[in-house]
Amino acid sequence: MRNLFDIHDWKIVETSFDPKKQMQAESIFSIGNGSFGQRANFEERYSGESLQGSYVGGVYYPDKTRVGWWKNGYPEYFAKVLNACNWIGIDIEIQGESVDLNHATVLSFYRELDMQSSTLSRKVTLRLKSGKELEINSIRFCSMHRNEIAAISYSVKPLNFSGNVKFTPYLDNNVSNDDANYDEFFWEEESQKAGNKKAFVCSKTKKTNFHVATAMRISFWKEKELQEIHPNFATKSLYAENSFETYLEIGTTYTLKKYVAVASTLNHSEFSLVTHAINQVKSAYLTGFDDLLEEHKVAWSNIWENADIQIDGDVAAQQGIRFNIFHLYQTYTGTNEKLNIGPKGFTGEKYGGATYWDTEAYCLPFYLKTADPKIARQLLIYRYNQLDKAIENAEKLGFVNGAALYPMVTMNGEECHNEWEITFEEIHRNGAIAFAIYNYVRHTGDHEYLKDYGRPVLNAIARFWFQRFNWSKAKQAYVMLGVTGPNEYENNVNNNWYTNYIAKWCLSYALEVEESWAKKDKALLSNQELFQWKEMLDKIYFPKLEGTNIFLQQDGFLDKELLNASDIPDAQRPINQHWSWDRILRSVFIKQADVLQGIYLFEDHFDLDVIRDNFDFYEPKTVHESSLSPCVHAIIAAKIGNLDKAYEMYLRTARLDLDDYNHEADEGLHITSMAGTWMSMVEGLAGVRVYEDHVLIDPKIPATWKSYSFKIRFRNNPIQVTVNQEGYVLENFGNDSITYTYKGKKIELCANQTSNSLQLIV
Amino acid sequence: MRNLFDIHDWKIVETSFDPKKQMQAESIFSIGNGSFGQRANFEERYSGESLQGSYVGGVYYPDKTRVGWWKNGYPEYFAKVLNACNWIGIDIEIQGESVDLNHATVLSFYRELDMQSSTLSRKVTLRLKSGKELEINSIRFCSMHRNEIAAISYSVKPLNFSGNVKFTPYLDNNVSNDDANYDEFFWEEESQKAGNKKAFVCSKTKKTNFHVATAMRISFWKEKELQEIHPNFATKSLYAENSFETYLEIGTTYTLKKYVAVASTLNHSEFSLVTHAINQVKSAYLTGFDDLLEEHKVAWSNIWENADIQIDGDVAAQQGIRFNIFHLYQTYTGTNEKLNIGPKGFTGEKYGGATYWDTEAYCLPFYLKTADPKIARQLLIYRYNQLDKAIENAEKLGFVNGAALYPMVTMNGEECHNEWEITFEEIHRNGAIAFAIYNYVRHTGDHEYLKDYGRPVLNAIARFWFQRFNWSKAKQAYVMLGVTGPNEYENNVNNNWYTNYIAKWCLSYALEVEESWAKKDKALLSNQELFQWKEMLDKIYFPKLEGTNIFLQQDGFLDKELLNASDIPDAQRPINQHWSWDRILRSVFIKQADVLQGIYLFEDHFDLDVIRDNFDFYEPKTVHESSLSPCVHAIIAAKIGNLDKAYEMYLRTARLDLDDYNHEADEGLHITSMAGTWMSMVEGLAGVRVYEDHVLIDPKIPATWKSYSFKIRFRNNPIQVTVNQEGYVLENFGNDSITYTYKGKKIELCANQTSNSLQLIV
To answer: What CATH number did the domain enclosing A193 receive?
Structure first.
């Protein structure tokens, strides 16, 4: 695989302009701050192929569902992430000639995303049709310190002429979603105004009535000297601009600084919104670009302090893992309980919605180990707040008594997805949400959370599972019919092992939590419910390959032709692009870990032999056509000592978007699967596990690396793990003494202590 | 159930005007002649709720597929039956006031569909806002004798005034489909002209480029006296009219006769089309209304001669059965091998396409027994002509070597449907097409057909089945995974008993036919194929309930909660309107006969005990939410001696549309299921079976009926069966002596012979 951009440990760098790469680059060089984000579109007009994209967290539009054949229970709408006001725009015109990289001769081009500071910069020299040459230098960022602020410094230097240049910084909310089912326009005008070196546009979404106010302030500089300018200002519907023409001297740099605030009624009242945005941008303007940038860098350095992984000896791997960590924190910072982690973050629109089971299954472990526990807690609170909607959702499907089914895709808690085999049947997602609560508690020890917020969610999920099983007279067991497991290359199967397993675990964990808290707090379940659940637990059916350790993915799995993925001709891979859907369904091939997903989550329930046998049975049948698959395989492969396979699986995900393996980075990045890459490193290569009372490590290192190092949180203590070819070192930066185990040996690590010297890897 | 319209043995009669019933009436009073057809819209403008619908057989538009989530293998388009040129239009205006039943006071109203003569007539008296009263008398028909001709006689009588009245007979192809996925307009202008008492509109369909020419001629009469008129003529895009104003005397009847030809490039070259239509309409005009009507009646009387069922003692049942027979012959007459039987015929647009497996499974037996064998043969030729497309269709799904999968829905042989669990998985339709060939041969003895046309189709279908089974190591048998059986309330199941059974039968029948013809004609299959198929036959897996006679609908069926339909609360019926799709799928409830469909087709393969046990097991679990279900149950119930159940099931279908049980007659009628009603009578109550060398009868009669009588064809000999409470009489109107059996007794019935006297029913 050829690298798409230059390799660098902290940066993504593009050193020549290729319009064919522009859409990919726009996604890959995206910046965001967890509250809003922006594709790496150019500030000046660009008439080439581009997806102009500005996205504001939590603001959505209920796009009318597109469906071929309606099924009862389908939702009426699909919540779409909204492409919002373009706030980066700065048009440049020189004596009637627009600066547009699509029509100019690009003499040199350099674009850089600095992941350490989250700044996007660009240096271009170009020649216009008129022969005029100029240099553009721009740098921008979405402030991680002030989550409603962005700033741009945009410099122009005439290289071979002196003359008048017109600058038009603007705000433009005349923006359509690329992803809209019926090409509807989602925005309505609310108000806009332009004044002297300032402007705002306030628009609202149709139907959902979210108001978004975008405000700007500008200043203009000749080299380091502030210039007095007298811009014209103009507005039209959903648009506001300043424009001014000024004489530029050859060889001199002129800089437009544009300060922007983006605020919405997700966090503010309609009444105060515009004022708030104006005040925010004024404060940013008064702070000034350099100081804003400085505080932004400090905020990012705090993130990296905890979340960075350093790899020595492999710059491509180093760049890859940082790219993933970087985009996760651009997308979600845990500061707002109304937000979640959209599949494309702020880098594109596809798939709509903000919340999939990816959040709990992949992203939560990342935040649990790399940040203050309150960030992970927000993700749990998000689901807690949507419990009522999950109960309504289950009621629509005929469930009663407060049973909850969390949606497959959502923005506000309501189901958005409409594909019966997924919407109604891929119900294992409910299990991931329960497991997230368990996982949070074992990382943080926050049992109070469990009492007040965890229990209602666990109980409602357990009620769902209790009703979803039915008694099979034939099997004399409880069975679960008509489900789709994590492996979406099987639909509407009976007794998916993973779903049955996690359902049983949910019932059992809910019982355990309830019984433990019912004594100390008020009981939330009736005795009858407790009794019925317990009665069910022992009688749940699990398909097995008799006489072996193999758990069968579902009933009838062995009736398939038992081929391996290596039997598929290369020309037919990926099968989802070459085979008809029924052929995929009939085949034995697995899209993503299914039984192995269960073994990953409940590793401690199984002997190593069982884990190895199931891995050896399923891994060869898995085509990994979901970006969420390889990480689970990497972790289990490492666990069973297959380092080569673990490393192979790690490599499959680490640079997925950066090198655009799947030729779809133009639409946006695979944000949630980035957490999977991180998992393959920390849980896979380094073998980290977190238990109620200790951390386990079992580090391995690829032969080509010198060393790697990262921090994890355990009970809010940052523990640094460093691994090289000989051994590992643990350092406890926390205030509590902690216990870790290595190869069965328990080791105490006091507060602020290093595990002395290098511990040899045995 | 309240009757929607008056009960009459040969007529559907509406005696008062109810705008709320207009849409239903438009469907129910539809007329057609197998080539084109027309909903019972009013000739004069009507501004009330209405679906104006004129449909031309075989002319379709490839409407862009609407899909929620694209799956590989889905077709790009869905062929839509086209709403075509409105040829009935006659506007009436009296001194600026339009005649429109929606704005007038209707003083009396009488609408009649005479099924014997296939004429739609109407007599209305009305008062306009101006106080003027008039009487309208209209009668129209689509000629069964000249299949491109229709005629209207439209009379106006002023009741309380004399004065000028303006008549505007027109042709209008500015018509949109009610059923269009993206509200596209499907027609393009080709040419139009209006002349003295004549006009035509020729339009063409976008993309498919079908040309349809509609031509008219008019004459005007005062009482019985032809009037000289001098109409103005005008055209605009897709529209042509004549208009003339004339003085009408109080109490005198004035009649506009409108002759229409409808021709298309399905049957004519683009070059000659308009001329052909003009010539046709001229010839009709010269023949005159009365003679056209007369020849039309004769053609219908020939149909009724063979197809009628007379029921004495139950007028509602009599009307119901005739209504079904009537609409089947309006839809399909077998004169054109390019046509087939659309689910709504010419009565509406819903579902698009023309051809479903309904044709072979339900309609073919009807035509085989009620008409010359060449009519049924056309239906087989239709599929023979589309074999190449069926092979392409199978190739898209990964099948090779000339395997064919006929489409779920089609117009031209290409698949139109896009719902993976149906399109790719409801493959039993392939079996119905093979069975139709077998059924045709046993009714007609046309083995020559088998040699030249049947064999290639049978072999291609058998090749599909051979590849669609796979060897299960676990079961040591061939299994078929991922199918949807006739019961569409189960999706993507393994080893659907019906599908496995009909697939095995196809292989076996194809082998038998091939081996018999290979000696006399050239061999079409390799020895290897013959060998492999034979090897497979003995090793096909069938799910069974061990220790009983019950064939299991599919693997895992017994894991369901084994409830009966009677356990469902009334308020939750039909379940397809009350339950979410997954709940329906998980439930045991059966939409339409599945195992019983197989038992129906292959009745002779099973002992009566087996049939009874399976009926008793499945019938209580069946909710009959397909109009194609009760007929199969009626036939089997009769077979096992459960006359009450047979009659109950017969009643469920007989007046389905006539009384609009399902509140959907406004969209059009259930044409194909009408054949099912006929089957419940002839194969159910009368117990008729046709074998290679004899006919079996086993007549029963409901207690409330005096007698019933019908004809069936056997080897092209019309055999009349008359049944009353004591016994039955058979009459052979054919030229060959035939054998029939009754209760195991073989009886010879010579040419032109009656079974003498009444045979007692034992």
So the answer is: 2.70.98.40
